[in-house]
Specification:
This protein is an alpha/beta fold. It folds into four domains: about 10-125, Response regulator (Rossmann fold); about 145-260, Beta-Lactamase (2-Layer Sandwich); about 270-435, 2-Layer Sandwich (Alpha-Beta Plaits); about 445-705, EAL domain (TIM Barrel). The chain starts with 9 loop residues before the first strand and ends with a strand.
Length: about 700
């Protein structure tokens, strides 16, 4: 139903009519026109009720009746309308305080998309107004035709009809063309070849080929491409058309619609930049380096040519940062990143792997050539860096590994290049070292630990602890994550990081996964019998995900322990999926067909694409805890990543979970962002299953209703 047929009833709480001009403009941009009533005093606010008002927009700041007072007056009443706070801008703390006070949303001036969504949510919660009586006058048909015409011209898409010829000359195009390109319909129709001419040169041949093929075969035409608007700026179009045959059966017309997806494309590119590029230096990050290293290794295997990987680590950089401060440390890293890229001559081959480490890919390079490059890099680092007028000298160590001599897999080559770095550092720093087997430390403890782990699995000595997941909106416990623990008689509690990699490299991973699945299912079933239906999430490794027997193991755990499949969730990492996308898709589809939920864990640390997320049957996205913990930092970069990832997950229809919540401020800010679920030490540390009921009874979080 259009805004004209069901007008919005909005009330703005302002201190003067002039202060409401921005609200009125935003509502107008959303298509709601003149639907705004202004009030300015508490006596005007108190009577507001849902029956007469769809939404209240409290202007911030307001010296007369501020948003806090509006929320205080209205939010305690059952019949009160939703209250949204509207402002030119907010601080994170202001957003948190308004949401905690009961605000329906926090809306920034000009953000019409969020305003429209807030209005839609507010109205969906309100009772529907009575439907108007059907028209009985003779003008009913004419009015209906007017509505149809208005609908075509008001939808946020361009509609067209064109001839099925070589250049797609247009017969009709809707008025949305003007706002999308700057061209009027008259100008566009006057030039038969204008669509072809405005196609981006890099996309033209591909798009025309697809269009002509659709006309030839009568199939549906679909393409996303770039177009140059009247000013020469690039816009992205999603174009879908249907071929209409003439009396002779041949293609005569194509009719279709076009969506402007420029903002979506820019958002995807922005997210890709955050995912694949280091924010400080602008260089590719570790995720992109691993992706490119995998492609380079595949090419190296095909051609038989060597590939060198350099890892460069700054010497005693932590001491430098502790002395000069993090800001000066950032300046040093930026300067050295520029020198490194200049020396290599191609920034695409360089990456910042972590704080003080860089990586360099050298295709068609043997160890001798790589050593020469490394020495040139170190030579370029000899010039002091000026930091606050102080000359700072920085040295570095370079480790080199070469494929295929030192390995032909990404992780192997990275690990061995890192071992070479440690060897170079052991020599005093400021030098290069090429990998040698003697650099890998021989640890007999690993051999002993592996035997003990095998016996512990056979004896069922490993235990599970559970960390609660809570719903931020409803303040309820909605599930737990199962975390494996090994209480060792002599070693104490062995951390998973010490024994999971051992199991991954041996045949222990499947029995270990089966053990975890059965323990988690058994305990979840017992919670059900005790009157608490608590879904449990189990982490599955890359090795288990690609094991064709994992589906049988999950089914057996559910059947043996009589557990409802909806109370089990499988968590996988981005990198595990990317190892074999096709196999992962088959496995995950099999799990969802059994009713088991799928969650992407540690999201943001791998290199999954939007295409992959759309294709896989995923229901939940967990933001990696490193970003959530980093929200407390001073730069705000991690906060921006968390906010963007949260919006991305919601746009894809996924539940979003934030891991690593360690303080109340972070929890409140996540609530303000609209994040769905959270877990972390501030909420609860992992605990034995027997302690869960006691924690729920004593905590501020309620059990979710079944």
């Amino acid at each position: 139903m259009s805004a004209r047929e069901n007008p919005l009833r909005a009330v703005a709480v302002i201190d003067s009519p002039q202060a409401g001009s921005g609200i009125a403009a935003d509502l107008e941009a959303c298509g709601f026109g003149s639907c705004l009533t202004y009030v300015s005093g508490e006596d005007d606010v108190r009577p507001l009720a849902r029956a007469s008002c769809d939404i209240v927009l409290a202007c911030h700041p307001n010296p007369k009746v501020g948003p806090e007072r509006v929320l205080e007056l209205l939010c305690a009443r059952a019949d009160a309308p939703p209250v949204a706070v509207w402002a030119e801008s907010f601080t994170d703390d202001e957003m948190v305080s308004f949401v905690k006070a009961g605000a329906h949303d926090c809306l920034r001036s000009g953000d019409t998309r969020r305003l429209a969504a807030a209005i839609e949510r507010a109205r969906s919660a309100a009772p529907d107004p009575p439907a108007p009586s059907p028209p009985t006058t003779a003008t009913a048909a004419a009015e209906l035709e007017d509505h149809h015409r208005a609908l075509i011209e008001e939808i946020p898409a361009l509609t067209y009809v064109c001839w099925a010829d070589e250049t797609r000359s247009v017969a009709y195009v809707s008025p949305q063309l003007l706002t999308m390109t700057g061209y009027s319909t008259r100008d566009w129709l006057a030039e038969p070849d204008i669509w072809v001419e405005r196609l981006h040169p890099e996309d033209r041949d591909h798009v025309l080929s697809r269009y002509r093929e659709a006309c030839k075969t009568g199939s549906r035409f679909f393409s996303e491409y770039r177009l140059l608007d009247r000013e020469g700026s690039i816009v992205w179009w999603r174009d879908e058309g249907r071929v209409m045959p003439g009396p002779d059966g041949k293609a005569r017309f194509v009719r279709g619609f076009v969506l402007d997806v420029t903002e979506q494309k820019l958002a995807e590119e922005s997210l890709r930049r955050m995912r694949f590029f280091d924010q400080l230096t602008g260089l590719p990050n570790r995720a992109l380096m691993q992706l490119r290293l995998g492609s380079a290794l595949a090419e190296s295997k095909e051609t038989g040519r060597p590939l060198a990987l350099l890892i460069l680590a700054l010497d005693r950089f932590r001491d430098t940062v502790n002395t000069l401060g993090h800001h000066s440390g950032d300046e040093i890293v930026r300067d050295l990143a520029g020198r490194l890229a200049d020396t290599i001559g191609d920034a695409e081959r360089v990456a910042r792997l972590r704080g003080d480490e860089f990586g360099v890919l050298l295709p068609d390079s043997d160890a001798d050539f790589a050593r020469n490059v490394g020495e040139r890099v170190l030579k370029g680092f000899e010039r002091p860096i000026m930091v606050e007028r102080l000359p700072i000298e920085v040295t570095a160590s370079v480790g080199i590994a070469v494929a295929p001599d030192h390995g032909d897999e990404s992780e192997v080559l990275l690990r061995r290049a890192d071992a070479a770095v440690q060897a170079a550092r052991a020599l005093g720093g400021g030098t290069c070292a090429v990998y040698s087997p003697e650099f890998d430390p021989h640890d007999p403890e690993h051999v002993a630990l592996l035997g003990e782990l095998r016996r512990a699995v056979e004896a069922d000595d490993l235990v599970l602890h559970y960390q609660p997941k809570v719903d931020l909106r409803h303040k309820t416990v909605v599930g737990v994550e199962a975390l494996l623990r090994w209480p060792h008689a002599k070693r104490g509690m062995v951390p998973p990081g010490d024994f999971i990699p051992l199991a991954e490299r041996t045949g222990l991973m499947r029995p270990l996964t089966r053990l975890v699945l059965h323990k988690a299912a058994r305990e979840a079933h017992q919670w059900e019998r005790d009157g608490r239906a608590i879904p449990v999430a189990v982490n599955v490794s890359a090795r288990s995900l690609h094991d064709p027997l994992i589906l049988d193991d999950v089914a057996e755990a559910l059947r043996t322990n009589d557990l409802d499949p909806t109370h089990l969730q499988i968590e996988i990492t981005e990198s595990a999926v990317m190892e074999d996308e096709a196999r992962a898709a088959i496995t995950l589809s099999g799990l969802t067909s059994k009713g088991v939920g799928i969650s992407i864990d540690d999201f943001g640390t791998g290199f999954s694409s939007l295409r992959l997320l759309r294709r896989l049957p995923v229901s939940e996205l967990k933001i990696d805890k490193s970003f959530v913990i980093g929200m407390a930092g001073e730069t705000g970069e991690d906060t921006a990543i968390v906010r963007s990832t949260n919006d991305l997950g919601h746009n894809l229809g996924l539940t979003v979970v934030a891991e690593g919540v360690e303080d109340e401020w972070t929890l409140d800010l996540l609530s303000a962002f609209g994040c769905d679920l959270a877990q972390g030490y501030f909420i609860a540390r992992p605990m034995p299953g027997a302690d869960l009921a006691g924690w729920i009874a004593q905590s501020d979080w309620r059990m979710a209703e079944s």
